[in-house]
């Protein structure tokens, strides 16, 4: 087997119900983690966003217009780049949210490299789409931040990734590809470009597969918290929930259903995150704090 391929499991423990919204937040947590861990942003995303938003507020109130020196000009140039990077990250996070909100996501891939043909690192996230519940509300089952951090911390200390994470990666581009369990272009978001297959990775590319696992002791059908709502009650009376439906279908029908649910297509997000690093000749403290 290609030694560049690494398979790592990420477990979400003690999460009773996994909703699509919570999964999107978890995926966004992994994106943030990778951006910082692979040195595409100088701080964790939250801190980075805080600084960049602070400049924008200062710009609006006209505080930073007074000086005309070259150093000042240079600093503003850097800040514009940093702002563009922040915007693209926030756009990519939104695409991920929309994808989970409107379709079944089978997998996602973050490609780090100058272009999608020759990436140097690829992170494929395999989504436990069968354990994502559609009968529960995201708001009732938000993923606690601590739980996300716990899972990410395990990624950081994972032996498989240790060597990779201790190598330097230059500032580069980050691309997003999404595999949806549908062959129809999702029309409600126009910033995805269809692809026939996922990008083929060159042999030199570090090929990391993160398998998201959802472990819960309760089966989701037993949990009725969000089913108190009338609509779910009606579905229950009609015996349309999963367990009932499976029994009444012939094998042939089940095969057809299975085939349909296995039809998937790849899309590439138009938005590209360009990594940002302040140039070494500049007092970097200056850029962030002044
Ligand atoms: Zn619920």
Automatic annotation (TrEMBL):
Gene3D superfamilies: 3.30.900.20. Coiled coil: none annotated. GO terms for biological process: regulation of exit from mitosis. InterPro entries: MAD1/Cdc20-bound-Mad2-bd, MAD2L1BP_domain_sf. GO terms for cellular component: nucleus. It comes from the Eukaryota. This is GG11237. It comes from Drosophila erecta (Fruit fly).
């Amino acid at each position: 087997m290609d030694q560049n391929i690494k398979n790592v499991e990420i477990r979400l423990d003690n999460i009773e119900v996994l909703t699509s919204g919570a999964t999107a937040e978890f995926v966004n947590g992994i994106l943030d983690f990778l951006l910082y861990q692979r040195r595409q942003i100088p701080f964790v995303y939250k801190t980075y966003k805080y600084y960049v938003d602070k400049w924008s507020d200062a710009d609006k109130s006209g505080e930073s217009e007074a000086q005309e020196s070259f150093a000042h000009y240079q600093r503003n140039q850097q800040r514009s780049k940093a702002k563009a990077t922040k915007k693209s990250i926030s756009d990519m996070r939104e695409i991920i949210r929309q994808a989970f909100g409107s379709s079944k996501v089978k997998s996602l891939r973050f490609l780090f490299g100058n272009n999608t043909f020759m990436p140097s690192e690829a992170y494929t996230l395999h989504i436990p789409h069968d354990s994502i519940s559609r009968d529960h509300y995201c708001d009732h089952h938000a993923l606690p931040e601590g739980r996300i951090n716990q899972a990410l911390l395990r990624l950081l200390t994972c032996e498989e990734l240790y060597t990779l994470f201790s190598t330097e990666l230059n500032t580069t581009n980050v691309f997003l590809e999404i595999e949806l369990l549908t062959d129809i272009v999702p029309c409600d978001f126009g910033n995805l470009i269809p692809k026939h297959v996922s990008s083929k990775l060159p042999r030199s590319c570090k090929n990391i597969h993160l398998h998201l696992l959802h472990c819960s002791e309760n089966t989701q059908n037993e949990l009725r918290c969000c089913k108190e709502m009338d609509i779910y009650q009606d579905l229950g009376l009609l015996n349309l929930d999963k367990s009932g439906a499976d029994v009444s279908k012939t094998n042939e029908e089940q095969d057809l259903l299975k085939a349909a649910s296995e039809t998937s297509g790849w899309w590439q997000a138009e938005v590209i995150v360009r990594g940002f690093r302040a140039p070494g000749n500049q007092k970097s403290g200056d850029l962030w704090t002044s």
